[in-house]
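Lesson 9: reading folded outputs for more than one chain in a single document. The general rule is that every protein is listed as its sequence immediately followed by its structure tokens, and records are never interleaved. Here is the first one.
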Amino acid sequence: MARNGKLATDLVQKLERDIVTGVLKPGDKLDERSLSERFGVSRTPVREALQTLAGSGLVATMPRRGTIVASITVADLIEMFEVMAELEAMCARLAARRMARVDVEKLLALGGECDKLQEHADADAYYEANVNFHEVIYAGCRNSFLERQTKNVRNRLAPYRRLQLHRPGRVKKSNAEHAGILEAISTGDAERAAKLMHQHVAVQGEALNDLLAIVPRGYLEPLAS
């Protein structure tokens, strides 16, 4: 039983990562048999993992479709981005006050990696580096509860945040925004770090309209439960 629990936990992490990185997209079917074959485990930990992911809203069980990567309504999308901006701003504020120098150096290195990737305008490669950049800030806030909650909302929004970077010019704009956040955190300017991070994550007005225009069918309702 304990082994199945450990396997289920590992599967949750792997499937979350697949959703965050776009390997699995909203509307994709998650078949127990296929997943058990892919990961070389029995169906029991797969079933447990899917139940955990359903509890966090990342997957949903649909009539006649089975379990799929969850979609959300437009209203949910707007509300989640609003919450995400506040959570990330809080992480940045605390990170500017608490982040160790070694972690600041790591953040600077990731900023450099994002610099290189944005030159190639490869939105998907940049997105993965962007995830790492933000996760260092989450960890740097030194508040494990806040870090977990921020990651939970980030995971739920991952497919949509990834799509944002496919808007013309967004990768370069995102990278320029990183530079300001980096400076504020590295100099300990907590309020500026929070303000810049909020602006970086928030999606409203034209940015929201542009995002909705490029969201594929299936990412939004009526697929979501």
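And here is the second record, again sequence then tokens.
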Amino acid sequence: MTGTPAEKVVGRLYLVPAPLDFGCDVQAPLQDVLPLGTLQTAAQITHWICENAKSARAYLKRIDAVAPLAAPVQAQHIQELPREVHKKGDHTGQFDARPLLAAALEGHDVGLLSEAGMPAVADPGSSVARAAHELGIAVVPLTGPVSLLLALAASGLNGQNFAFVGYLPQDATARVQRIRELEALALRSGQTQLFIETPYRNAALLQALTQTLQHHTRLAVARGLTLTTSEVRSETVKTWRARPPALDDRLPAVFAIGR
């Protein structure tokens, strides 16, 4: 008699958060911003999907200094998300990420990384998580910093009803129109509106916000979260106009408006 074939072992997809100091001059100690359990789990993964292989390897070296890697950095299997995913996003359901998860179907755990924070939140990766569900692969989010929630919690704005709207338009006219739309929604519904910008455009965005928003609207800006230089300022636009800050164009920031 022949035995029953063994059930095929399938790996898991781990969403591995990264520190929020990508591109900053000073890096935060990993053990200060990520739980040891997260780092130890990440250290055992040898197959990765990421935004950029170079920065992924740099992050793995930082992990190795705290929790030794199961395989040397040079032996890690690293796949990059396609360039069009970076430029257009992968939250629309149009990109098929299932081929990237072949290693998981062969029994290997796979880690998903973004440049900073939690992958698939304000960053690419949702297509990979969606593909994992379609393939019957367990999706396991690990604990780590999420800039949007840290900024929201520190803002004093409505944390019971909020929306993240990504990036605002770069065109000045379209940006002003979008700011007015978001402000009207926030003031009418009480829903906090969160958005981000590329660091070197932070000053221009803040200027547009203070010039466009009504004086009684509350504006919060959280910069350099989890770093020693972090700052969260939440005041009415009238106060922002009276005391305009000088924004460091290298620090990532989260912006929020509400009432």
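What the second record shows: The chain has a mean pLDDT of 94.
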